[in-house]
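Anyone up for a design puzzle?
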């Protein structure tokens, strides 16, 4: 696909801040973009999928180090090593813990919305009764 967007337009299209896009490029998470003779970075709509994917993974709590490692594992054409499996298992464990917390929060918020008192909701959320 033709690269027709400058970074400001690409940022608006992808929903990822320009500074974040530049940072991903410096860290090697994104390939160097095509450039115009004026040295402006140029992107296509297809480039947006990759930058959104990285940004979404980061919003799920993955660190940049984890992103770099995960991308390098994905680029390899061989089976996972024991270290790679351990790395993936660690991320899976973290995601499961976050999902459990998210599920608990969702339940508590639905109970709050259904009319439970805040002190009861706080007790369920944090395990202790707050004075009201």
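Challenge accepted. My sequence:
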């Amino acid at each position: 696909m033709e690269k027709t967007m400058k970074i400001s337009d690409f940022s608006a299209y992808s929903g990822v801040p320009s500074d974040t896009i530049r940072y991903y490029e410096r860290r090697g998470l994104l390939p160097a973009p095509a450039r115009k003779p004026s040295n402006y970075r140029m992107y296509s709509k297809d480039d947006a999928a990759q930058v959104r994917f990285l940004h979404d993974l980061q919003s799920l709590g993955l660190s940049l180090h984890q992103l770099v490692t995960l991308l390098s594992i994905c680029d390899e054409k061989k089976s996972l090593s024991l270290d790679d499996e351990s790395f993936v298992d660690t991320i899976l464990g973290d995601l499961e813990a976050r999902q459990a917390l998210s599920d608990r929060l969702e339940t508590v918020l639905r109970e709050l919305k259904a009319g439970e008192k805040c002190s009861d909701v706080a007790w369920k959320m944090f395990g202790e009764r707050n004075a009201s």
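A detail worth pointing out: The first strand starts at residue 34 and ends at 35.
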